[in-house]
């Protein structure tokens, strides 16, 4: 097989396609041979297996929502494409490629207003204590409106240039909108019997000043609050994967992970499957929603999210990825992303709240997380 040129794959991406770039490979698919949409993720996974068995192009790509049981029922949505092409990773090949220019928005509206988010965090802290939760993840949105059409293509292009690591994606949604983003976080990958998850929790912003930047990384490594937030997550991932695995390893101390905009605590969990019939999609559905984007215990946290956030998350804080006929695949947590409509965009950013969380620091953390998308759009970070 002639290796595909990754730059061409990126240039070929157009609204409606699927694109996922990682440090190891790039995937671009186009066309729709079959589309499967279901609010039952385990059922969806079985339907995808059946469809893949007879498919000409034996891969399925798509998205899982944050909460398929939410009012309005956002379904999981997978497509068996007409064409699928893999290439090597975009970096370093794309280094030096020119950035694309985007129109400036005519309006930027935080949802809710920053003061309301501060209030929601304070209420979340109180609810954790009153209801006995260990953690909840609260998000906010930022709406950008434009005079003319804004396509996902230039945003994806700039995100790929900006993010040498992680999972940079564009996925078509059932609404015809596009989810575009650059997530640092691997929910699950499966290669043969080998599974990997790289959950993230605990955050500090990067800084342009090298001294402050190094201090922020160090502060995160020694923050008790962030280690608690992280331990809740790792425990849940290990517990969920354990029944599927005959061997499972998770280091007891997390790593310091960096993206161009954030520092995080991350733990690489690896395992060997008992049963190779369990696909990457099935495992992703079992793990999702992790405490990285929901909380612990899951159901109470999901309820608190619905009470305190004034919007539906849709496909933000869900999962994006692919699975093939062998059951291999990779699924990233769909964060650091935006939903792109014709003339508007909704960005999302959230953070884990534990009993020691400070509202102001949590608001600032979400502002820092918006920067992944804002930078790709040629905009400065928002404050507040
Ligand atoms: C929820 C988000 O990020 C998640 C929350 C984190 C945290 O609370 O420290 C860290 C990484 C992500 O798992 C987001 O970016 O929107």
Automatic annotation (TrEMBL):
Residues 115-369 form the Chorismate-utilising enzyme C-terminal domain. It catalyses: chorismate = isochorismate. It comes from the Bacteria. SUPFAM superfamilies: ADC synthase (SSF56322). One of its GO terms (biological process) is salicylic acid biosynthetic process. Pfam families: Chorismate_bind. Keywords: Isomerase. Gene3D superfamilies: Anthranilate synthase. Residues 194-213 are annotated as: Disordered. InterPro entries: ADC_synthase, Anth_synth_I-like, Chorismate_C, IsoChor_synthase. Its EC number is 5.4.4.2. It is an enzyme of class 5 (isomerase). One of its GO terms (molecular function) is isochorismate synthase activity. Belongs to the isochorismate synthase family. NCBIfam families: isochor_syn. This is isochorismate synthase.
